[in-house]
Design a protein that fits this description.
- It is a single chain.
- The chain has helices at 26-30, 44-60, 79-92, 106-118, 132-138, 176-193, 195-209, 213-233, 248-257, 266-283, 289-302, 318-327, 355-363, and strands spanning 2-7, 14-19, 37-43, 64-70, 99-104, 124-129, 143-148, 151-158, 163-167, 331-332, 335-341, 347-354.
- Helices cover 47% and strands 20% of the residues.
- It starts with a strand and ends with a helix.
- It has 13 helices and 12 strands.
- Bound molecules: nicotinamide-adenine-dinucleotide (NAD) and zinc ion.
- Nicotinamide-adenine-dinucleotide binds at residues 43, 45-46, 49, 72, 74, 77, 104-108, 110, 130-131, 133-134, 137-138, 141, 143, 152-153, 170, 173-174, 178.
């Protein structure tokens, strides 16, 4: 059982395959894009469960797979990580017409996408995302980057993959907390642009998150379809792609205020941030309060945090949050750029949210 979604970007178009049993068929899916040496980059956790199976299928189609196993964790997405990976890729002898495979979560996808984008001035790569977040978000759309001491994702490039293979079976071994964090991005798609999908999720998310493959496939495929449509309309985020940042201005501030630690995963920040964006929209008279309550209720029901009070430990200080938002590159003349909503499923970008409204909301 699988679905295929196309990301339509003229000569850079590619397919996103979503379903079960896909890693077992990956050799056949990848073969049209590869020849000879195929570096397969993954992390230690993912390697344990899925590397051998992937290597076997590549071997079956006559490709010379070369595993490169990196340390798990955000720290790998760094200049040092880039240097190590670039040298490891060069050691495999992969040529400019070759293909590099990224097997892992967003850390592996972002690093491998960037490394292959600059290696020999750009070679092709494929994404085999293994976290829910990577399957519904980071593996689709071509944004790649590493972190710097000035902030996350500040050095990178747009480099679209040749193919994305999202096998929902692999989500079974993902820690529950990581699964839920990825789910926050799924709920975000419904909240920003598809009220019917949100309503479907209200009914089916519990079974999808319990591992039911049919509902999980629909959950991932529909999310990819929505992201593909947005990316196809605005590849380089000069317009509507910014809608994908619903919940992220608040979310990033919360992540920063909690020191990017295990206290709050990115997706958990997005969950709280999405509720805050709905509440701010309601406070500004743009959206019914009932929609904010509905989004909060759903996120809570699946087990995600839905308010700042749900963050363990000391409550992040309002001024600290505001200052993180102002330092965000999106601030202009004392007004913050936000994604707000005119009701569930109707997000829009606005550049004139008064700081005071945000302060009132955070202080409440
Ligand atoms: N490029 C984009 O558009 C984009 C979008 C969103 C996020 N990101 C980036 O993605 C990164 C976060 O990605 P992530 O949440 O996937 O984190 P991650 O890659 O660190 O994976 C989370 C953890 O799960 C483990 N893991 C992965 N797959 C597994 C599986 N199937 N079973 C068991 N364990 C597994 C990993 O080893 C890791 O420990 C961040 O660096 C973020 O900046 C990029
Ligand atoms: Zn996100």
């Amino acid at each position: 059982m699988s679905e295929r979604i196309t990301v339509s970007l003229a000569a850079r178009s590619y397919g996103v395959h979503v379903g079960t049993g896909l890693i077992g068929r990956a050799g056949t899916l990848l073969a049209p894009f590869a020849r000879g040496v195929v570096p397969v980059v993954t992390d230690e956790n993912v390697a344990l469960g899925y590397l051998d199976r992937l290597l076997v299928t590549l071997d079956e189609v006559g490709l010379d797979a070369r595993p490169i196993v990196l340390e798990p964790g955000e720290g790998t997405k760094s200049f040092a990580g880039l240097e190590g990976l670039s040298n490891a890729l060069l050691e495999t002898g992969v040529d400019r017409g070759g293909l590099v495979v990224a097997l892992g979560g967003g850390v592996i996808g972002d690093l491998v996408g960037f490394a292959s984008g600059v290696l020999k001035r750009g070679i092709d790569f494929a994404q085999i995302p293994t976290t829910l977040l990577a399957q519904v978000d980071s593996a689709v759309g071509g944004k790649t980057a590493i972190n710097t001491r000035h902030g996350k994702n500040l050095v990178g490039l747009f480099h679209q993959p040749k193919i994305v293979i999202a096998d929902v079976d692999v989500l079974q071994t993902l820690p529950r907390r990581e699964l839920l964090a990825g789910y926050a991005e799924v709920a975000k798609y419904g909240a920003l642009g598809d009220a019917d999908f949100f309503a479907w999720l209200e009914v089916h998310a519990p079974q999808a998150l319990a591992g039911d493959t049919a509902s999980l496939t629909h959950t991932v495929a529909h999310s990819c379809r929505m992201k593909a449509a947005i990316v196809a309309g605005d590849e380089r985020e000069t317009g509507d792609r910014a809608l994908l940042n619903l919940g992220h201005t608040f979310g990033h501030a919360l992540e920063a205020a909690t020191g990017y630690s295990q206290r709050l995963l990115h997706g958990e920040g997005v969950a709280i941030g999405t509720v805050l964006a709905f509440r701010l929209s309601a406070q500004l008279g743009l959206s019914p309060e009932a929609d904010a309550a509905r989004v909060a209720h759903h996120l809570k029901a699946v087990g995600l945090p839905s308010s700042i009070a749900d963050i363990p430990g000391r409550r992040p200080d309002t001024d600290a949050l505001l200052s993180h938002m102002q330092h965000d590159k999106k601030t202009k003349d004392g007004h913050l750029t936000f994604v707000l909503v005119r009701g569930l499923g109707h997000a829009f970008v606005t550049r004139d949210v008064p700081l005071q409204a945000v302060r009132d909301l955070l202080a409440a």
